[in-house]
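Note to self: keep these together.
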Amino acid sequence: MITSDLHMHSTYSLDGNNTIAEMCEQAIHLGLTEIAITDHVEWPPNGAHQRPDFDRYFAEIEENRARFAPRGLSLLSGLELGNPHQHRAEVDALLASYAFDVVIGSMHWLAGQNIHYPRCFDGQDPYDVYARYFGEIEQMAAMVDCEIIAHFDRIFWPGTNRFGPPEIERIATPVRQAMRAIVEHGRILELNTRFLTHTPSWNDALLTVLRWYHEEGGRFVAADSDAHRTAELGRNLAVAQQLIEAAGCTPYQRQVEVTAV
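Structure:
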Protein backbone atom coordinates (compact mmCIF):
# COMPACT_ATOMS: atom_id res chain seq x y z
CA MET A 1 0.00 0.00 0.00
CA ILE A 2 1.36 3.39 -1.02
CA THR A 3 1.41 5.82 1.91
CA SER A 4 3.45 8.69 0.47
CA ASP A 5 2.80 11.54 -1.94
CA LEU A 6 5.91 13.52 -2.86
CA HIS A 7 4.45 16.06 -5.29
CA MET A 8 1.88 18.68 -4.31
CA HIS A 9 1.40 22.43 -4.22
CA SER A 10 0.35 24.84 -1.50
CA THR A 11 -0.58 28.51 -1.60
CA TYR A 12 3.13 29.22 -2.09
CA SER A 13 2.43 28.29 -5.74
CA LEU A 14 0.42 30.69 -7.89
CA ASP A 15 -1.99 27.87 -8.74
CA GLY A 16 -2.14 26.35 -5.25
CA ASN A 17 -5.41 26.52 -3.31
CA ASN A 18 -4.65 25.27 0.21
CA THR A 19 -2.12 26.02 2.93
CA ILE A 20 0.62 23.64 3.99
CA ALA A 21 -1.30 22.89 7.19
CA GLU A 22 -4.46 22.05 5.24
CA MET A 23 -2.52 19.67 2.98
CA CYS A 24 -1.07 17.98 6.08
CA GLU A 25 -4.49 17.56 7.67
CA GLN A 26 -5.85 15.95 4.51
CA ALA A 27 -2.84 13.66 4.23
CA ILE A 28 -3.43 12.36 7.75
CA HIS A 29 -7.13 11.93 6.98
CA LEU A 30 -6.17 9.74 3.98
CA GLY A 31 -3.72 7.64 6.00
CA LEU A 32 -0.60 8.98 4.32
CA THR A 33 2.58 8.95 6.38
CA GLU A 34 4.92 11.02 4.20
CA ILE A 35 4.31 14.04 1.95
CA ALA A 36 6.41 16.69 0.25
CA ILE A 37 5.23 20.23 -0.48
CA THR A 38 6.89 20.91 -3.84
CA ASP A 39 5.89 24.39 -4.89
CA HIS A 40 6.59 25.75 -8.37
CA VAL A 41 9.72 27.45 -9.61
CA GLU A 42 9.06 28.49 -13.20
CA TRP A 43 10.60 30.53 -16.02
CA PRO A 44 7.65 31.05 -18.42
CA PRO A 45 8.45 32.07 -22.02
CA ASN A 46 7.20 35.61 -21.31
CA GLY A 47 10.33 36.22 -19.25
CA ALA A 48 8.65 36.19 -15.84
CA HIS A 49 10.15 34.20 -12.99
CA GLN A 50 7.83 32.48 -10.54
CA ARG A 51 9.14 31.23 -7.22
CA PRO A 52 7.95 31.17 -3.61
CA ASP A 53 9.33 33.29 -0.83
CA PHE A 54 11.44 30.40 0.38
CA ASP A 55 12.40 31.99 3.70
CA ARG A 56 8.72 32.15 4.66
CA TYR A 57 8.07 28.75 3.08
CA PHE A 58 10.77 27.00 5.13
CA ALA A 59 9.62 28.68 8.33
CA GLU A 60 6.13 27.31 7.71
CA ILE A 61 7.50 23.87 6.82
CA GLU A 62 9.36 23.72 10.14
CA GLU A 63 6.30 24.88 12.07
CA ASN A 64 4.06 22.24 10.50
CA ARG A 65 6.72 19.56 10.69
CA ALA A 66 6.75 19.94 14.47
CA ARG A 67 2.96 20.15 14.58
CA PHE A 68 2.19 17.02 12.57
CA ALA A 69 5.10 14.71 13.41
CA PRO A 70 3.43 13.55 16.67
CA ARG A 71 0.44 12.51 14.55
CA GLY A 72 2.59 10.26 12.38
CA LEU A 73 3.18 12.47 9.34
CA SER A 74 6.63 13.09 7.90
CA LEU A 75 6.59 16.48 6.16
CA LEU A 76 9.30 17.11 3.57
CA SER A 77 10.35 20.34 1.92
CA GLY A 78 10.69 20.48 -1.83
CA LEU A 79 10.18 22.26 -5.12
CA GLU A 80 9.12 21.50 -8.68
CA LEU A 81 11.42 23.02 -11.27
CA GLY A 82 9.87 23.76 -14.66
CA ASN A 83 12.26 23.06 -17.58
CA PRO A 84 15.27 23.33 -15.25
CA HIS A 85 17.81 22.17 -17.86
CA GLN A 86 17.15 25.43 -19.72
CA HIS A 87 17.94 27.56 -16.64
CA ARG A 88 20.97 25.87 -15.16
CA ALA A 89 22.64 28.86 -13.51
CA GLU A 90 19.49 29.93 -11.68
CA VAL A 91 18.69 26.36 -10.66
CA ASP A 92 22.19 25.66 -9.36
CA ALA A 93 22.15 28.87 -7.31
CA LEU A 94 18.76 28.06 -5.81
CA LEU A 95 19.70 24.49 -4.89
CA ALA A 96 22.89 25.77 -3.29
CA SER A 97 20.92 28.25 -1.18
CA TYR A 98 18.40 25.91 0.45
CA ALA A 99 18.45 22.31 1.67
CA PHE A 100 15.39 20.90 -0.10
CA ASP A 101 14.43 17.36 0.80
CA VAL A 102 12.79 16.63 -2.57
CA VAL A 103 13.71 18.18 -5.93
CA ILE A 104 11.45 17.47 -8.90
CA GLY A 105 12.26 18.28 -12.51
CA SER A 106 9.30 18.68 -14.88
CA MET A 107 8.61 19.61 -18.48
CA HIS A 108 6.03 22.38 -18.65
CA TRP A 109 7.02 24.19 -21.86
CA LEU A 110 7.88 22.91 -25.32
CA ALA A 111 8.94 25.36 -28.04
CA GLY A 112 7.35 28.15 -26.02
CA GLN A 113 4.01 26.39 -25.64
CA ASN A 114 2.42 25.17 -22.40
CA ILE A 115 2.24 21.38 -22.73
CA HIS A 116 -0.96 21.20 -20.70
CA TYR A 117 -2.99 22.54 -23.64
CA PRO A 118 -3.77 20.89 -26.99
CA ARG A 119 -2.53 23.96 -28.87
CA CYS A 120 1.03 22.77 -28.23
CA PHE A 121 0.29 20.35 -31.10
CA ASP A 122 -1.01 22.99 -33.53
CA GLY A 123 0.25 22.47 -37.08
CA GLN A 124 2.49 19.55 -36.14
CA ASP A 125 2.56 15.78 -36.34
CA PRO A 126 1.70 14.68 -32.79
CA TYR A 127 4.42 12.04 -32.83
CA ASP A 128 7.02 14.67 -33.66
CA VAL A 129 5.81 16.62 -30.61
CA TYR A 130 5.97 13.52 -28.43
CA ALA A 131 9.48 12.72 -29.66
CA ARG A 132 10.77 16.24 -28.95
CA TYR A 133 9.14 16.18 -25.53
CA PHE A 134 10.93 12.98 -24.51
CA GLY A 135 14.15 14.36 -25.97
CA GLU A 136 13.86 17.27 -23.53
CA ILE A 137 13.19 14.86 -20.67
CA GLU A 138 16.38 13.00 -21.60
CA GLN A 139 18.36 16.25 -21.41
CA MET A 140 16.76 17.24 -18.11
CA ALA A 141 17.61 13.89 -16.52
CA ALA A 142 21.22 14.20 -17.65
CA MET A 143 21.78 17.85 -16.74
CA VAL A 144 19.91 18.69 -13.54
CA ASP A 145 20.52 17.39 -10.02
CA CYS A 146 16.94 16.36 -9.22
CA GLU A 147 15.68 13.32 -7.37
CA ILE A 148 12.45 12.82 -9.34
CA ILE A 149 11.66 13.28 -13.03
CA ALA A 150 7.97 14.10 -13.39
CA HIS A 151 5.50 14.64 -16.23
CA PHE A 152 6.69 11.96 -18.67
CA ASP A 153 2.96 11.15 -18.87
CA ARG A 154 1.62 14.72 -18.90
CA ILE A 155 1.97 15.26 -22.65
CA PHE A 156 -0.45 12.37 -23.28
CA TRP A 157 -3.31 14.28 -21.68
CA PRO A 158 -3.67 16.99 -24.34
CA GLY A 159 -2.50 14.57 -27.01
CA THR A 160 -5.15 11.98 -26.21
CA ASN A 161 -7.87 14.58 -25.91
CA ARG A 162 -7.05 15.81 -29.40
CA PHE A 163 -5.87 12.70 -31.28
CA GLY A 164 -6.84 9.68 -29.17
CA PRO A 165 -4.55 7.43 -27.12
CA PRO A 166 -0.97 7.39 -28.44
CA GLU A 167 0.48 4.49 -30.40
CA ILE A 168 3.43 4.39 -28.09
CA GLU A 169 5.56 2.04 -30.21
CA ARG A 170 5.89 4.84 -32.79
CA ILE A 171 8.08 6.79 -30.36
CA ALA A 172 9.86 3.85 -28.75
CA THR A 173 13.36 5.20 -29.47
CA PRO A 174 13.08 8.67 -27.83
CA VAL A 175 11.06 7.28 -24.93
CA ARG A 176 13.57 4.51 -24.24
CA GLN A 177 16.44 7.00 -24.46
CA ALA A 178 14.72 9.20 -21.89
CA MET A 179 14.12 6.24 -19.59
CA ARG A 180 17.75 5.18 -19.96
CA ALA A 181 18.94 8.67 -19.01
CA ILE A 182 16.71 8.70 -15.94
CA VAL A 183 18.20 5.42 -14.77
CA GLU A 184 21.82 6.18 -15.68
CA HIS A 185 21.77 9.47 -13.78
CA GLY A 186 20.13 8.03 -10.67
CA ARG A 187 16.75 9.74 -10.98
CA ILE A 188 13.37 8.32 -9.99
CA LEU A 189 10.56 8.27 -12.56
CA GLU A 190 7.23 9.69 -11.39
CA LEU A 191 3.79 8.42 -12.39
CA ASN A 192 1.25 11.24 -12.12
CA THR A 193 -1.90 9.76 -10.59
CA ARG A 194 -4.28 12.55 -11.58
CA PHE A 195 -5.62 11.11 -14.84
CA LEU A 196 -5.35 7.38 -14.26
CA THR A 197 -9.15 7.08 -14.43
CA HIS A 198 -9.52 9.43 -17.40
CA THR A 199 -11.75 8.51 -20.37
CA PRO A 200 -10.43 7.94 -22.98
CA SER A 201 -7.60 6.18 -21.18
CA TRP A 202 -3.92 6.14 -22.12
CA ASN A 203 -2.97 3.73 -19.33
CA ASP A 204 -1.84 1.08 -21.82
CA ALA A 205 0.77 3.53 -23.11
CA LEU A 206 1.81 4.37 -19.55
CA LEU A 207 2.27 0.71 -18.71
CA THR A 208 4.46 0.23 -21.78
CA VAL A 209 6.65 3.18 -20.81
CA LEU A 210 6.95 1.88 -17.26
CA ARG A 211 8.00 -1.51 -18.63
CA TRP A 212 10.65 0.14 -20.81
CA TYR A 213 11.89 2.03 -17.76
CA HIS A 214 12.17 -1.29 -15.92
CA GLU A 215 13.99 -2.88 -18.87
CA GLU A 216 16.51 -0.02 -18.76
CA GLY A 217 17.18 -0.83 -15.09
CA GLY A 218 14.61 1.34 -13.33
CA ARG A 219 13.41 -0.16 -10.06
CA PHE A 220 11.32 2.49 -8.34
CA VAL A 221 8.45 4.68 -9.53
CA ALA A 222 7.06 7.54 -7.46
CA ALA A 223 3.25 7.60 -7.53
CA ASP A 224 2.38 11.23 -6.86
CA SER A 225 -0.81 13.26 -7.14
CA ASP A 226 0.57 16.68 -8.19
CA ALA A 227 -2.31 17.98 -6.06
CA HIS A 228 -3.12 21.69 -6.21
CA ARG A 229 -5.92 21.41 -3.61
CA THR A 230 -6.75 19.06 -0.76
CA ALA A 231 -9.43 17.24 -2.76
CA GLU A 232 -6.77 16.01 -5.21
CA LEU A 233 -4.36 14.66 -2.64
CA GLY A 234 -3.55 10.94 -2.76
CA ARG A 235 -5.84 10.28 -5.71
CA ASN A 236 -5.87 7.01 -7.70
CA LEU A 237 -3.04 5.47 -5.68
CA ALA A 238 -4.50 1.96 -6.02
CA VAL A 239 -4.54 2.25 -9.83
CA ALA A 240 -1.00 3.62 -9.78
CA GLN A 241 0.22 0.73 -7.65
CA GLN A 242 -1.30 -1.79 -10.08
CA LEU A 243 0.45 -0.18 -13.05
CA ILE A 244 3.79 0.12 -11.28
CA GLU A 245 3.80 -3.47 -10.11
CA ALA A 246 2.55 -4.76 -13.47
CA ALA A 247 5.64 -3.17 -15.02
CA GLY A 248 7.89 -5.01 -12.58
CA CYS A 249 8.73 -1.92 -10.52
CA THR A 250 8.22 -0.96 -6.88
CA PRO A 251 6.42 2.14 -5.55
CA TYR A 252 8.96 4.67 -4.28
CA GLN A 253 8.72 5.78 -0.66
CA ARG A 254 11.55 7.68 0.97
CA GLN A 255 10.86 7.59 4.74
CA VAL A 256 14.17 9.26 5.53
CA GLU A 257 15.21 11.72 8.19
CA VAL A 258 14.32 15.20 7.01
CA THR A 259 16.75 18.08 6.87
CA ALA A 260 16.66 21.61 8.24
CA VAL A 261 17.47 24.72 6.24
